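Write out the 3D structure for:
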Amino acid sequence: MRHERQVLICPDCQLTQDWKADLDRCGRCRSTFLLSRLGEIECHSCGHVRSHTSPEPSQPVQQRDAALTNEVEQALSRVLGGLARTPTPRAR
């Protein structure tokens, strides 16, 4: 989780960046193995549960949603780009 929102980190970023440095941590055990559900955040390492306390977002929701949509589209294109292409029929 990052800023109390669940995030997915692409495999390339996991190899090239210190991606764990930006993740939220459990207030009790400092683990990054957190799960968000129904207004609560639970630590899978120690079981500590707390409610969301997210501050107001710095960007308007529409801008954040558009940026996230663009980022997801790019990631899917990279990952599934080769699968989306239909093979061309071979001439006999």
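The longest strand covers residues 34-37.
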